[in-house]
Design a protein that fits this description.
- By secondary structure, the protein is α/β, with parallel strands linked by helices.
- It contains three helices and 15 strands.
- A hairpin with a 2-residue loop joins strand 1 (2-4) and strand 2.
């Protein structure tokens, strides 16, 4: 997305589009950890949101790949649901002390399964699990538009879903947690009304 005077030009694979206002609703695109079969099994036992999908694994054994201590609150949430968690972290120390968590320092080599997650492989050993959660940072959507204010990989918005750039609004997972449909739909509704108000005020531009 580039700015030209009072207009925005959006470059896509299908062509270029010129507009007075934009709603960024890119969702959340997790950074891949380059684990074998990660792409193949997304949606088939691999999840990136503990609060969204945790209940699906109640009383089951799961793997959790936690990229940073800042996501350990999500591991705590999962520990209250799962039968057992095999926790893998690239960092050595963790404050998590639960009877149903086994901590491994390091990342699995792969997530395995034919049509859905069946195990993770760590140091040559296959550990049977029903699912795998990847808790990690998103790709920064700020690369789409120069000058967009960001915090923690999310777009900063006000109550009207307006960003720091006039005419640009954002809604959904790209604005931050919780990553849930209800929050995203509500923000989308607010953003649309805000854009309509913005266009009314700038109809002569």
């Amino acid at each position: 997305i580039t700015q030209k005077n009072s207009l925005f030009i959006v470059n896509t694979d299908l062509g270029n589009y010129q507009t007075k206002s934009i709603i960024i609703a890119t969702g959340r695109t997790p950074r891949k950890l380059n684990l074998e079969n990660e792409d193949k099994l997304i949606g088939n036992g691999i999840s990136y949101c503990a609060t969204c999908d945790g209940a699906l694994y109640k009383n089951k054994d799961i793997a959790v790949i936690c990229a940073s201590p800042k996501f350990e609150d999500e591991v705590t949430f999962l520990a209250g649901l799962a039968n057992h968690i095999y926790l893998f972290t690239p960092y050595k120390e963790t404050t998590l002390q639960y009877d149903n968590i086994t901590h491994f320092n390091g990342l699995p080599a792969s997530v395995d399964g034919d049509k859905k997650v069946a195990s993770v492989t760590f140091k040559g050993e296959a550990i049977p699990v029903s699912g795998a959660f990847f808790l990690k940072d998103s790709i920064n959507p700020g690369v789409l538009l120069s000058g967009l204010d960001m915090a923690g990989g999310h777009i900063i918005v006000d109550r009207t879903q307006k960003t720091n750039i006039d005419g640009v609004y954002a809604a959904g997972d790209c604005t931050g947690r919780p990553y849930q449909y209800a929050k995203a739909v509500g923000e989308g509704n607010v953003a649309v009304h805000s854009v309509l108000d913005y266009l009314k005020k700038h109809k002569d531009n």
